[in-house]
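re: ur question from yesterday

yeah so i grabbed the chain u mentioned. its 549 aa long if i counted rite. heres the sequnce exactly as i have it in my notes:
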Amino acid sequence: MTKKIFRGILFSSFITMLASMVFIIGVQYRIYDDSQRDSLESKARLISFAADDGEIERYADAKERVTLIKSDGTVIYDNKSDAEKMENHAQREEVREAETIGSGYAVRQSETLGINTCYYALKLENGNILRVSDTSLSVTAVILELLPPICAVAVFAFVLALILASLITKKILKPINEINLDDPSGIKSYEELTPFVSRIQAQQKSINRQISELTRSRREFEIIAENMSEGLVLTDINGHIITHNSSMEKFFGVSGDLSGKNILNINRSETFRGVFESIKENRRSDSVMEVGGRFYEITVSPVSDESGNPRGSVILAVDITEKEKREKLRREFTANVSHELKTPLTSILGISDMLKNGMVASEDIKGFAEDINKETSRLISLVNDIIKLSELDEDKKRDTGRVNLYEVAQDVAKRIEPVAAKQGISISVTGTDAVINAGDSLIFEMIYNLCDNAVKYNRENGSVTVSTGVSDGKAFVSVKDTGIGIPAAEQERVFERFYRVDKGRSKQSGGTGLGLSIVKHIAVTFGGTIKISSEEGTGTEITVVFGEM
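ran it thru and got these structure tokens back, copy pasting raw so excuse formatting
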């Protein structure tokens, strides 16, 4: 990875330097060519006065070549050659152009000498064509002339690029190389990585611990004890039940003495038919089955005597309902996060590819830049919300103190008022002091998210009212808006992660679908409950009630 980053930076620097030099040489040669043309034009106009007076011979010793040509192409005078021996010039490019528009310019390369000759032709008042020509440097000659300073600059730039590439590569990789997966809290840079690494580490430990406990419990003889929470069945090699515990009866809804009966008396599903086959074939098997809305992991382990002869099997049924629910939540959360991150990243990648490939007109670049900025802001908001949820998910002690809901609501209103004003929405705070024991920053976050939602899903020129107070000895804060409202069927789901009632409007307003999830998490953290009252087309009121003061 270090080499790839280093080579990438160095290659980019080299390409940039090479392109700059080519551009500079091109500009330099263009300036030189324009200067050559201007010089010939000035000389031609100066000599034209002498040509009109018949005194063109005074320029016989001029450095430039001076030629006077009739309108039919016959050479009248040339200061470098015998005019009578020269061929007709009527078809020369510069002569034809001068005959047509009054002046002409052409550059021709000598095939023998490999140098360029510039010709400027000027039509005189008497109809004759005056042509002035001189040699000029070719592109190759210009490059050769500039080669020494170019090489010096190139060497210097390359050495500088090497140094900078090395320094930048080390700076980029240093924080990543210093990450300690066993203790990710020590990360000082790239703070965005901390919650993800920490969360993965916690999940790995939790999963490993559960697997270890299940494995240990299946292998230890103490699992036969009646007080074990797992269901246990011992069978002989023919699948007849030797003993079982009450947990197995509870799991599968059976009762009575099952000793000596076939294992299929417990359950006759396809899963238990597979269990019976595993017993007869003396092989280990694992399967998961659902009974009454709960999930059980059924493990069949063959038992052999000291000589290795099969004697029966141990069947262990473990309730993994909570594990399955957590796994389902994890899969849903991972899928939602992947989808939500992919959308803005795909948009940014598409726009950047268009910009990189020059497919965007200069007047449209600002608009595309605004799109990138919008998607980046949305991405940052999403990451921040995910980080906040990850922090709230951590079961750790939080700093608490006396927090006045009324004062916090006023602070939130001041913070969000400029955003609301852009939509003509008024925001007000009413009520009385309501003091609770909680974290000041988290309560601010909770009320802010409620007000932010109330503004986003409000109508133009609408209003948001924040109320605080104490009712029946319990502190409360409510946020009421005059917005679009929430359908009755959707009200129970709005606090789910990534759930949006109006997906189109939510995306348009920059919503991540996590705001109300954060609100609920903070409320529950400090012993609060949430009530929602909403009517489509009228508005929504969300109230958070805390425990007794």
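noticed a couple things. The mean pLDDT is 76. also The radius of gyration is 43 Å.
anyway ttyl
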